Amino acid sequence: MNPIATPDHLSRVRYEIRGPLARRAHEIELAGHEVIKLNIGNPALFGFRMPDALRDAVAEHLPQSDGYCHQKGILPAREAVAAAMTARGVAGVGADDVFMGNGVSELILMTLEALLRPGDEVLLPAPDYPLWTAAVALTGAVPVYYACTEARGFVPDPDEIDRLVTPRCRAIVLINPNNPTGAVYPAAVVRAVARAAERHGVVLFSDEIYDRILYDGAEHVPAALHCTETLCATFGGLSKVYRACGLRAGWVAFSGRRDHAARYLQSIELLASLRLCANVPGQWAVAPALASDHGILALTAPDGRLGAQRAAVLEGVRRSKHLRVEAPRGALYAFVGARTPGFDDQRFAMELLERERVLVVPGSSFNIEDRTHFRVTLLPDPDTMAEVFRRIERLLDG
User: Fold this and answer.
1) pLDDT class for 10, splitting at 50, 70, 90?
2) Biggest alpha carbon distance in the chain?
3) Contact 99/252 with Cβ under 8 angstroms?
4) Does the pTM exceed 0.90?
5) Domains, in order of start, for the chain
6) Where are the alpha helices (DSSP H) in the chain?
7) Is 363 left (phi over 0), alpha (psi -120 to 50) or beta?
């Protein structure tokens, strides 16, 4: 039989976080070997638990979760998101401006599918979280990248973003705090990017899933605070800050100018209706989650678990003859660079897995041409992280 063909636009879709390296790691584990997995920000894999209040809310409301809910989500969850936006100073957001999804991932796909036509353009950070590029490519639109270079602390240049906007551009995407680099953007940068979106009349998408995972006094500035004269979409969820990935409870809240966006928002609601609704039990955890910080500030403090694990990564790099890193100020990752001439991130990642049983993600997986970086998660305990860097050093010494 002839091979089953796949569409051309899938050639731009990649997700190496769970790609060939992860599949090879699974094979190694099946052969009886332990692999230290630093490829994915899955807190439960490293012993983090969702707060009891979230688990209790899901259990309490299971009798009310048998059926479909409204396509936008249950009202208590949407009201809680709207109230949280208001508390942060964002004006004019009500429950009707919020859509609940099966994680932020589903909402990224839905909001871009409702917006884009073949040939449209979307400005994305480079490096980016690869789902954003994939979601653009699946619509037939074109990802256009603005550079977030190590020399700038992985922070974008708003002037470059402004120059890259063409008549075909429909949206600008911010990922702040950033995955994979851990950068947290200064208020002046967020404000300038919002002004560029307003000036060109494009949608501003702000992925803020890590908004409360911050280190060294970093402050997260919501894009919606500064984006009032065009449509702004802010994405958040329970997976990271609240350590509840398995609930698949995410949201997008629309703010800013909306008088020109009625058809677009109706299109999103149509797509939300086609998938009937988001996971209902998980949505019951949203209101109790947003009522408290649930320990994230203690975890990210210098003497907290995440703070100590971040320090172990920085110490591992400091001790290395071969590595460098821009200290992450937010999120759950470090984007480590190599000093070694001729370093190739893909080859390094495979050799590290085969020889040292450590799984990392090559930096080029995040849609950059540079092949001198790799991403690690900050989730393992300090002793494990120290062992990881011993193994990396041994491999690079070889």
Assistant:
1) confident
2) 62
3) yes
4) yes
5) 8-49+297-397 (3.90.1150.10), 52-290 (3.40.640.10)
6) 20-30, 52-60, 75-87, 103-113, 130-138, 158-164, 187-200, 262-274, 280-283, 286-290, 296-300, 305-319, 345-356, 382-397
7) alpha
